[in-house]
Structure formats: C-alpha cells, structure tokens
Design goal:
- About 15% of the residues lie in helices and about 20% in strands.
- With about 190 residues, it is an alpha+beta fold.
Length: about 190
C-alpha cells in the first residue's frame, strides 16, 4: 500500500479498552489529512517532551495518598508527599521535589513500616546510582539517516526498532545510541 505521513496531535482517547477490542480508540487531529479517510487504520508514533524532576519507582513504594517513606541520614524513615505523574504497569512515575532529589525511598511498603522507625537498609551489593546519559541534539540530516538505518535493519526485532525510533524522534538523543547505530551490526563503522 501507499505510505502517507502527517504530523498531528492526539485530541482524546477512550478511557478503557472496549469489550471485544484489543486496544483503545484514539482520536487525533491530523495537520495534513490529505489521503486519509475516516476509519483508516494507521500506525502512530508518539513523542512526548522529556519530563524533568521525575523518578520511576515501584508502585508498592507509593501509597494511595501519594506518600513515600524516605530514608533520613540517621536511617530513620520519614514520610514525604510526591506527585504521581502516571502509572506504568508495576511502576509509578513520580515528580520529585527538589528537597528529595537523590534520597533513598522504601521500595515496598508494609504495615510494619512508618514514619520515625529506624531501619537497617538492605541495599543490593555494589548498587550505584546510574549517571544520566550524555545527550546530543541531532541535525535533521543525521536524524533522517539514523531513522532510515533503523527502519532498514531487517534483523532488528520490532520492539527494539520501535523503542529506538521513539528515542530518535526526541529533541535530544543518547550519544551511546548514536555511536551504536553508526557502528552498525558488526561493530565496525559503516559509510554514510
């Protein structure tokens, strides 16, 4: 079939999956609707701006009121309110207030844990806080070249392809991803 591409914006989505359906119904405003007809099936790639000051934590770390237990310097727990941005499966994206940046929180709450209790943290051996990846802003030509390379990689699993294309559509892209794509599947640098 003919491939038609147009930018647009999601205007609304159904709140849940309907009976007998395998996905949600999404309504979008298409900037250049030429060639599209009502009821057409389409592939949608969604980009969203990077979310500043957020952390992804297990859903078990946040109670229904948006409270997490934070480990203080003297290994005592204190309650802190966070804003739940969204839930993603068993994880929750929370907005972290500046005062909590870099703090350790309890990953799984239970009735025995509460504010003021002294605990002995059980950390994974050699656990380290990951550094933020170096990000690069791509020019249009390089971005188009990398997207074409990913779309043309026949051996790449579809889930990996979708994830990489999503990253390439962001304003800034991890430098390591660009290096890996430019090196190609054999590890040697490809032309282009």
């Amino acid at each position: 079939g003919l491939e038609i591409t147009s930018p647009g914006m999601i205007s609304r989505a159904s709140p849940s999956v309907g009976e007998g359906q395998s996905g949600r119904l999404v309504y979008a405003q298409i900037d250049a609707p030429r060639g599209f007809r009502p009821g057409d099936f389409v592939t949608v790639r969604i980009t969203e701006p990077a979310l500043p000051d957020v952390a992804m934590v297990p859903a078990t770390a946040v109670d229904a009121a948006g409270i997490v237990l934070v480990l203080d310097t003297d290994d005592r727990l204190r309650a802190a309110r966070v804003e739940v941005v969204r839930r993603q499966g068993d994880m929750v994206l929370i907005r972290v207030p500046p005062v909590l940046a870099g703090s350790e929180i309890v990953a799984a709450r239970n009735p025995l844990l509460g504010e003021g209790i002294r605990v002995r943290p059980q950390r994974e051996a050699n656990a380290q806080i990951p550094e933020a990846p170096e990000m690069v802003t791509l020019d249009a030509e390089t971005r188009a070249s990398l997207i074409a390379r990913v779309e043309g990689a026949v051996m790449m699993p579809e889930g990996v392809r979708t994830r990489i294309l999503s990253q390439l559509e962001q304003e800034q892209v991890p430098a390591r991803l660009i290096e890996r794509l430019q090196q190609g599947p054999g590890g040697g640098r490809q032309g282009g």
